[in-house]
Design goal:
The chain is an alpha+beta fold. The chain has 3 helices and 4 strands. Strands 1-4-3-2 form a 4-stranded mixed sheet.
Length: about 100
C-alpha cells in the first residue's frame, strides 16, 4: 500500500488550507482526487513513474519516481513499500520546493 510521508501530508494539508481559505473549494477537491489517484496508480505499478518531473532533470534521485495527476507532481520511493514524499503544484517552483528523499 502506498502511503504519504509526514512531509507530503504537510504539503497536502497546507495546500488544502490555502485553497479553502481563499474559497477555492473546487481546487481542494481536485487536489484530494489527485492524491487518491496517485496512491492507486503508484500501488498498481510503482515503476511506471518518470525519473523526474517535467523539465527538472536535476531532481533524479536513486530509487525515486515521479507521477503527475491533475496539476500535481508526486515523488515517491520505489524500494519496499512506496512512500510519497512530495506533492507539488505543477506551476510552483518545483526545483526549489522539492524535498529530497533524505529530507522527508
Amino acid at each position: 500500500m502506498t502511503r504519504l510521508s509526514s512531509t507530503a501530508n504537510r504539503q497536502y494539508l497546507d495546500l488544502i488550507d490555502h485553497y479553502l481559505s481563499r474559497g477555492f473549494h473546487d481546487a481542494a477537491v481536485k487536489l484530494t482526487e489527485a492524491v487518491e489517484q496517485a496512491v492507486i496508480a503508484i500501488g498498481q505499478d510503482p515503476m511506471a513513474g518518470r525519473d523526474y518531473p517535467a523539465i527538472y532533470d536535476k531532481l533524479i534521485w536513486p530509487d525515486v519516481k515521479w507521477i503527475k495527476r491533475h496539476r500535481y507532481w508526486f515523488s515517491y520511493t520505489t524500494q519496499g513499500e512506496p512512500v510519497i514524499f512530495n506533492i507539488l503544484w505543477d506551476a510552483a517552483d518545483i526545483a526549489g520546493r522539492a524535498m529530497s528523499p533524505d529530507d522527508r
